[in-house]
Specification:
Elements (H helix, E strand, L loop, with lengths): L1 H30 L8 H26 L7 H17 L5 H24 L5 H19 L4 E2 L3 H8 L2 E8 L5 E6 L1 H19 L1 H11 L1 H6 L4 H27 L1 E2 L7 H11 L11 H21 L5 H39 L10
Helix pairs in contact: 1-12, 1-13, 2-7, 2-8, 2-10, 2-11, 2-12, 3-4, 3-5, 3-10, 3-11, 4-5, 4-10, 7-8, 8-10, 11-12, 11-13, 12-13
Length: 357
């Protein structure tokens, strides 16, 4: 029975996410084969263009598992990019200093927002909304103009290609290998680390327990406040790392940068199977959610005549679809619990452990 419930609520959503991604991408390969959609490099571009979002969405998944949310990640990303660009181009600092700034900004936002949510018990939406405005405001205070990054070390990092053994043969008969950037490897390594942490560590089990039922977690002796605080701190650190990867992809900082990124992260987590109510979610599923978003953008770009806003439209439709699925599963669980309780009352059989007492 336990395995069946787990399959119905979690595994099924995960399978739907993977199947949706495969269907969408295969359809693109068939329809836009002449435009090069079937080339291996097109698939690698999904990871290249969304490496920063993958890391940020992992942090979003962690706080959503606890039943929280963080809508400040887009503004924090913009602040990270602007601070990195300003420090290197206006103040003459090196690229390693920019890495430190990125981590410091993410850590600071995580500490402050985590303290307000966990210990002062302020609603996560209100706290992160204040963080959204603060991050965007600090970005504009640094500079209202776009700052392009020309630091040699930073550009070398951004343009360092890692060639793969797969690729295509051009018209001249020469083999052209597909490639990725180091940002992709960093993002995938972080996904693996967070996935292992959530599944096999005590901290990961605490996150799921708190998201599933906070009162029950407290009765089991878990330090709910400290765990929530740690979740937001980790979210902030991942946002700082993701912001730096995002900056490596754009090589610039400007006020309107990463606008709407928080919605992309939330939708990727939900499409990947993370419940808005908490207690359920995986970063692997979230990664596929990001890839679905990237596939939609690639299909619209390859098609050529549709507006880029269609990416948001299709993504919002998918988000609604998965929210409805989550609601259906939640109602099914409630009905099963109600039926099991009525069966116990009708049979007169006491719950397990009652006879022993």
């Amino acid at each position: 029975m336990l395995q069946k419930k787990k399959f119905n609520s979690t595994t099924f959503l995960f399978i739907v996410t993977i199947a949706l991604f495969v269907i969408m991408y295969v359809a693109g390969m068939v329809v836009f084969k002449d435009q090069g959609f079937a080339k291996p490099q097109m698939f690698m571009n999904l990871f290249i263009n969304n490496a920063g979002l993958i890391v940020i969405a992992c942090g979003m998944t962690i706080v959503m598992i606890t039943g929280g949310i963080d809508i400040s990640v887009g503004s924090v990303t913009a602040l990270v990019c602007m601070a990195c660009a300003y420090s290197m181009e206006q103040q003459g600092h090196n690229a390693y200093y920019a890495v430190g700034i990125s981590l410091a900004i993410g850590l600071l936002f995580g500490l402050v927002q985590g303290y307000l949510v966990a210990y002062l018990e302020i609603q996560p939406f209100i706290v992160s909304l204040a963080g959204l405005f603060l991050g965007r405001g600090l970005t504009s205070m640094i500079s209202t103009e776009m700052i392009s990054i020309k630091n040699e070390t930073f550009i070398a990092w951004a343009q360092a290609k890692i060639e793969l053994p797969i690729g295509t043969v051009n018209r001249r008969g020469a083999f052209v290998p597909a490639y990725i950037y180091p940002t992709v490897i960093i993002a995938l390594v972080i996904v693996i680390i967070i996935a292992v942490m959530l599944k096999f560590t005590k901290f990961g089990r605490k996150l799921y327990a708190i998201g599933g039922n906070e009162q029950s977690a407290m009765m089991m002796g878990l330090n709910v406040k400290r765990t929530k605080f740690q979740a937001y701190v980790l979210d902030g650190i991942l946002c700082g790392i993701g912001g730096f990867l995002f900056c490596l992809n754009t090589c610039a900082g400007f006020v309107e940068q990463a606008k709407g990124l928080e919605m992309d992260a939330i939708s990727a987590a939900v499409i990947g199977g993370t419940l808005l109510s908490g207690g359920v979610g995986t970063v692997v599923g979230t990664t596929f959610g990001v890839l679905i978003k990237g596939t939609i953008a690639s299909l619209i770009t390859t098609q050529g005549t549709l507006s880029s806003w269609w990416t948001r439209i299709v993504l919002s439709a998918l988000l609604c679809f998965f929210i409805v699925l989550q609601a259906i599963f939640a109602s099914m669980k409630k009905k099963k619990k109600a039926v099991s309780k009525s069966d116990v009352k009708a049979s007169g059989t006491p719950p397990q452990g009652a006879a022993a007492k």
